[in-house]
């Protein structure tokens, strides 16, 4: 190489080579020459913008618009599409006409009508123009109450003749209507605000007092249900008594309900093997009679106990819950008398408050049928009649009791004989209505066996004389009952004068003799 050329290459070559290979060197940019008209062109600017967007977002896919029915994308070659479009336009015009009719009829009236059920297009399907009023704005919402306007602190609104004070009748009436919403939910007040109801202070105070009374009454009813013995169910206190009996070994298990009545519920239970009480004999099967604590059934039956001389001093009209316990105690004493006299009846095991445990008349959880439900032969029916006649005489003479509710519903047929149950209402003959109860028992027994075909059955008057030992001779029933009432009146006067029962005057335990 020529020395001059080498020197020139050494002077120019290494710098140029270093600049092309150095990463910090200035890049070689090729400038595109364009004219001033191209720079000012708007079409070129749009193309450059699209290129930049496509380079920045290459994966964005344009979403196709839905098949909206517009004038641009409608396929006018389809007759079905044209028919649907025409029908839609017709429905919209029809609905617009209905709205105009609503506004014309309603006007400024407080009670408005609506043609909503007659519209062709559903409101949310309608794409009406913006100048049309929305259907929800024209329709009164009954569930959105219009609250009454509050009175400012100065106590009046308006000026001059239009002044309205807080004592205005209309304003107070609307406020009272709004206050009804604060009543208990159970008290139905209706939509008084929507109807623009105006209540006077007198009416509002009466409704307020009635709402409070109803709230207290419902609370009492709820408490009564929680603390009362209902059908086939017991309250918590009674359940606790039954649990204690089971835990003490007195009862092994309680199987379930076997009978329900007006005053009590009867459960079946198996007797325990051991008992904590001394000299307490528990039968294998027991009947638990739980007297209802609702007090409703005892309001009209207090005459059986308040006039009974055994419980007259303990009777309290003001404490009805004690009456229920006395009712259970009375049945226990009556059953004890009948057991001592040898009358077939349940054997008393124990009494705990209003729960009476007795022996079960039946076998293997199956109670003995009532006399009205069993079909007896003529001989068994005749045998049952004479047995009942004998038991009524024993009950009156030996036990000094009158059943007071004797009928085929309170007599069971078990082991070929009749058993008497439900003696809680039984009274002594010295009771002011004892003879009336006895005559009623005789009527029930006589009618049942006469219908059963027992030819030897006496009528009610003959049966009454046979049981009581009295010789009342009367031609008809009216005179017979009149003499019975006269004897009861005489007995009541004698008891009031002497202060003692007539039965205490007799030494042999016979019932008192009613004679002049």
UniProtKB/TrEMBL annotation:
Determine if Kinase is one of this entry's keywords. Answer: yes
Database matches in SUPFAM superfamilies: Protein kinase-like (PK-like)
Subcellular compartments:
Cytoplasm
For bias kind Basic and acidic residues, which ranges apply? 136-147
The Gene Ontology CC terms held by the record are: cytoplasm
UniProt-annotated stretches for the region Disordered: 123-160, 497-516
Which family, according to the similarity comment? Belongs to the protein kinase superfamily. RIO-type Ser/Thr kinase family.
Its quaternary organisation is: Interacts with CASP10. Interacts with IRF3; RIOK3 probably mediates the interaction of TBK1 with IRF3. Associated with 40S pre-ribosomal particles.
Do the record's keywords include Magnesium? yes
InterPro entries found in the cross-reference section: Kinase-like_dom_sf, Prot_kinase_dom, RIO-type_Ser/Thr_kinase, RIO_dom, RIO_kinase, RIO_kinase_CS, Ser/Thr_kinase_Rio3
**Any one Gene Ontology BP term:** defense response to virus
Give cofactor(s), names only: Mg(2+)
Question: Which keywords belong to this entry?
Answer: Antiviral defense, ATP-binding, Cytoplasm, Immunity, Innate immunity, Kinase, Magnesium, Metal-binding, Nucleotide-binding, Phosphoprotein, Ribosome biogenesis, Serine/threonine-protein kinase, Transferase
Q: What is this protein called?
A: Serine/threonine-protein kinase RIO3
E.C. number(s) listed in UniProt: 2.7.11.1
**Pfam assignment, any one:** RIO1
Q: Its catalytic activity? A: L-threonyl-[protein] + ATP = O-phospho-L-threonyl-[protein] + ADP + H(+); L-seryl-[protein] + ATP = O-phospho-L-seryl-[protein] + ADP + H(+)
Cite the Protein kinase domain residue spans from the record: 252-516
GO MF: ATP binding; metal ion binding; protein serine/threonine kinase activity
């Amino acid at each position: 190489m020529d020395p001059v050329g080498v020197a020139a290459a050494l002077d120019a070559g290494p710098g140029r080579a270093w600049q092309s290979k150095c990463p910090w060197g200035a890049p070689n940019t090729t400038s595109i020459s364009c004219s001033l008209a191209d720079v000012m062109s708007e079409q070129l600017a749009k193309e450059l913008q699209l290129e930049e967007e496509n380079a920045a977002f290459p994966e964005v896919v344009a979403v196709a618009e839905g098949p909206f029915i517009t004038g641009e994308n409608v396929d006018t070659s389809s007759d079905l599409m044209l028919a649907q479009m025409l029908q839609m336009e017709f429905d919209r015009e029809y609905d617009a006409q209905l709205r105009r009719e609503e506004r014309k009829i309603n006007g400024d009236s407080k009670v408005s009508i609506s043609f909503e059920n007659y519209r062709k297009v559903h409101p949310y399907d309608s794409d009406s123009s913006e100048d049309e009023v929305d259907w929800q704005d024209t329709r009164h919402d009954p569930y959105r109450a219009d609250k009454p306007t509050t009175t400012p602190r100065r106590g009046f609104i308006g000026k001059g003749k239009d002044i309205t004070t807080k004592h205005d009748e209309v304003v107070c009436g609307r406020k009272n209507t709004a206050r009804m919403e604060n009543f208990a939910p159970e008290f139905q007040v209706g939509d008084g605000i929507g109807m623009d109801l105006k209540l006077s202070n007198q009416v509002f105070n009466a409704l307020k007092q009635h709402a409070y009374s109803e709230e207290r009454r419902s609370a009492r009813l709820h408490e009564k249900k929680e603390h009362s013995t209902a059908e086939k169910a017991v309250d918590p206190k009674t359940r606790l008594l039954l649990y204690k009996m089971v835990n003490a070994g007195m009862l092994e298990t309680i199987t379930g309900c076997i009978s329900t009545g007006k005053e009590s519920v009867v459960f079946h239970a198996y007797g325990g093997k051991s008992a904590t009480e001394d000299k307490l004999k528990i039968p294998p099967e027991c009947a638990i009679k739980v007297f209802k604590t609702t007090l409703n059934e005892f309001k009209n039956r207090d005459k059986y106990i308040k006039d009974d001389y055994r419980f007259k001093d303990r009777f309290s009209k003001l404490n009805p819950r004690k009456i229920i316990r006395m009712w259970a105690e009375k049945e226990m004493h009556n059953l004890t008398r009948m057991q001592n006299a040898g009358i077939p009846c349940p054997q008393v095991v124990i009494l705990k408050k209003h729960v009476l445990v007795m022996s079960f008349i039946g076998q293997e959880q199956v109670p003995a049928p009532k006399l009205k439900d069993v079909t007896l032969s003529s001989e068994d029916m005749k045998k049952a009649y004479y047995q009942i006649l004998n038991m009524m005489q024993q009950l009156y003479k030996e036990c000094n009791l009158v059943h007071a509710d004797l009928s085929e519903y309170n007599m069971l047929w078990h082991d070929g004989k009749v058993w008497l149950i439900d003696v809680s209402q039984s009274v002594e003959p010295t009771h002011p209505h004892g003879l009336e109860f006895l005559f009623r028992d005789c009527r029930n027994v006589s009618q049942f066996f006469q219908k059963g075909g027992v030819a030897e059955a006496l009528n009610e008057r003959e049966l009454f004389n046979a049981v009581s030992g009295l010789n009342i001779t009367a031609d008809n029933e009216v005179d017979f009952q009149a003499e019975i009432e006269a004897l009861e009146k005489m007995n009541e006067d004698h008891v009031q004068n002497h202060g003692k029962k007539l039965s205490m005057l007799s030494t042999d335990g016979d019932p008192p003799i009613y004679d002049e």
